[in-house]
Write a structure and sequence with these properties.
Blueprint: H1 2-11, H2 38-62, H3 70-79, H4 86-99, H5 102-114, H6 120-124, H7 132-146, H8 150-162, H9 169-182, H10 185-198, H11 204-216, H12 220-229, H13 235-247, H14 251-260, H15 266-278, H16 282-293, H17 301-314, H18 317-329, H19 339-348, H20 352-361, H21 367-379, H22 383-395, H23 402-415, H24 418-431, H25 438-450, H26 454-462, H27 470-482, H28 486-499, H29 505-516, H30 520-532, E1 541-546, E2 549-554, H31 563-577
Antiparallel strand pairs: 1-2
Length: about 575
């Protein structure tokens, strides 16, 4: 970062900093410059610092801190021998809080300490503030929180208390946020106890922050206890408690709170819809969306993203198409921000043609839309077409990410494009700057296994920088079953048993391999072991969408409310077929 700042500094026109050079400030040199009085010298210095601070403040307010970093103006001022005051650091820290740059924040903090402004002198220049010491202490703590440095933020809070500065509600909320980032429940409870004893007023903002902190520290119990005790319960506090309930997969508590709310808003609905979708209860998520649609609240982009995700995961094509129609009728996708979710939904629900149509008509060709269509085509076995879109993506100079490369490698696997798969896998780090993760290794093992390159797949697994999981060993075992490789099949099955001794699938697959090789004693021995240990495979499941509702069926499952009618119809069909 320092090198970037210095490079940018030398690239800037010299005239940009001309206000810092004494001969240029005519307005403040009315006095005799040949022999200025002490008073005029002080005014002169004040003018320079005032203009310096103004330039830093303007850059922070304009938000253009990437092209013209405020720290660059700060360094230039130091080089012209200007002395910073409290306002200089206040404006600079505010800019860095927005920019979230760790290196710049540490440099400014070091300057604060070196120049002595970490003590009371630091705050003495900001005379218009009612509590300048507290404001600037809080600002520095906020900077550390925004830079994801909770330990440093807490240490600064302790130092602040050590010099006798008492926190207000904003400082309290900030330090609770730091505790949440740290994930230390003991620290959170200690600060909560301090706040209660010190008599600091706790408003709704602080209450919601504390609930969130307890949740991030892993204690839904403490979060809910405080929620019940606090008198400050506005909609934000209710929403925070619902959010934490759902984050801890306690849907019953979340639904109970949602139903009890004195007043809901769009965020309340969004939290519940997303919560149900995240735990796989897609039908409940879609039902909530329909309830919201007939309420006084209008779904926004976040609502639609969660609902489309539920449709995609549930295979609810009819419901997804209805939501797409709702989006179009209400002009909710003018900027194309929902296109990637629509492409994903249609792909996962089986309508790849519609997914391609949305992509081709999309005004927004960003990373997410490109990745969605590539993954969708790969999922449907259109490997060559997926790679064609990937080439177009590169030509458009849109950078790939890890998910894109999973789609590309998956496309190669489904289409049997082994040479292209090897090439793309090897170029991930060299060309695209992406370190292969376990998902990418899994795609390569799948590809090599499908093509019968079992030794190469095994060598790849053994050379992985991370431990292979059940998915990779399961994929490899399936390939060994297809090509009847007993030796490697035994290795894969043994690894699967080590990872999950209660899963019978590995034993079943190895038993089938033995049977194919006429090793019936070993095959029957595994079958007997499965029976004696009472191991059972997870039942298979199929689903069908009828009139917007998705019906799921498990093997040997008779729990469906229309089971008798369905069974009767199947018997009639069977008689007609015979």
């Amino acid at each position: 970062m320092r090198a970037c700042i210095q490079q940018r500094f030398h690239q800037l026109p010299h005239t940009r900093f001309s206000f810092l050079h004494p001969p240029r400030i005519h307005a403040y040199t009315v006095a005799n410059v040949e022999n200025p009085s002490a008073s005029s010298r002080e005014d002169y210095a004040y003018a320079n610092v005032f203009l310096w601070n103004t330039m830093i403040r303007k850059q922070a307010e304009n938000g253009d801190i990437t092209r013209d970093p405020p720290l660059l103006y700060y360094i230039q001022g130091l080089r012209t021998r200007l002395r910073p005051n409290g306002q200089t650091f206040m404006y600079l820290l505010k800019a860095l809080v927005c920019g979230k740059n760790v290196n710049e924040g540490e440099e400014v903090h070091a300057s604060v300490v070196r120049t002595g402004f970490a003590s009371s002198e630091f705050v003495s220049g900001v005379r218009r503030m009612p509590q300048p010491g507290l404001v600037l202490w809080t600002l520095m703590i906020q900077a550390y929180v925004c830079l994801t440095l909770p330990g440093e933020a807490l240490e600064l809070f302790r130092t602040m208390r050590g010099v006798g500065v008492m926190p207000d509600m904003v400082a309290v909320a900030t330090i609770f946020s730091a505790s949440g980032l740290l994930g230390d429940l003991g620290v959170a409870k200690t600060i909560h106890c301090f706040i209660e004893k010190s008599g600091v007023e706790v408003d709704a903002f602080v209450s919601s922050t504390l609930i969130n902190t307890y949740g991030e520290c892993g204690s839904l119990t403490d979060a809910y206890r405080f929620f019940q005790e606090t008198a400050m319960k506005n909609t934000v506090v209710w929403n925070t408690m619902i959010h934490q309930s759902l984050e801890h997969n306690n849907l019953d508590l979340g639904k109970q709170l949602f139903d009890s709310m004195p007043e809901r808003d769009v965020a309340s609905w969004n939290s519940m819809i997303r919560g149900f979708a995240n735990v796989g209860q897609y039908e409940e998520a879609l039902a909530l969306f329909h309830d919201m649609e007939i309420s006084v609240f209008r779904p926004n982009t976040l609502t639609l993203l969660s609902t489309l995700s539920a449709c995609a995961s549930h295979g609810a094509l009819e419901a997804g198409a209805w939501i797409h129609s709702y989006v179009n009728n209400n002009d909710l996708n003018r900027d194309g921000s929902l296109d990637s979710s629509l492409i994903d939904m249609y792909s996962k629900c089986g309508d790849i043609a519609k997914a391609i149509q949305i992509f081709e008509e999309s005004p927004r060709r960003d990373l997410f839309t490109w990745t969605s269509i590539i993954c969708g085509l790969a999922m449907h076995g259109h490997g060559k077409k997926a790679l064609c879109y990937f080439s177009k993506m590169n030509e458009s100079q849109v950078s790939s990410d890890e998910v894109t490369m999973v789609g590309v490698l998956s496309a190669c696997a489904h289409a049997g494009l082994i040479e292209q798969g090897r090439m793309y896998f090897q170029s991930m780090e060299k060309v695209f700057g992406l370190v292969p993760k376990i998902e990418h290794y899994g795609c390569m093992v799948d590809l090599l296994g499908r093509m019968g390159c079992l030794k190469e797949a095994y060598d790849l697994i053994m050379g992985m920088p991370m431990e292979a999981n059940e998915i990779i060993w399961g994929s490899f075992l399936s390939a060994c079953r297809v090509y009847n490789n007993v030796e490697l099949g035994e290795v894969a099955a043994r690894r699967l048993l080590e990872l999950d001794p209660r899963d019978p699938w590995g034993r079943v697959m190895l038993s089938n391999i033995y049977a194919e090789e006429a090793k019936y004693d070993r095959s029957m021995g595994l079958r007997k072991e499965i029976k004696e240990k009472g191991l059972k495979k997870s039942p298979g499941c199929s689903s069908i969408e009828v009139n917007g509702s998705v019906h799921g069926f498990l093997v040997e499952d008779n729990s469906h409310p229309c089971y008798n009618e369905i069974n009767s119809m199947l018997e009639k069909i069977e008689k007609l077929m015979n």
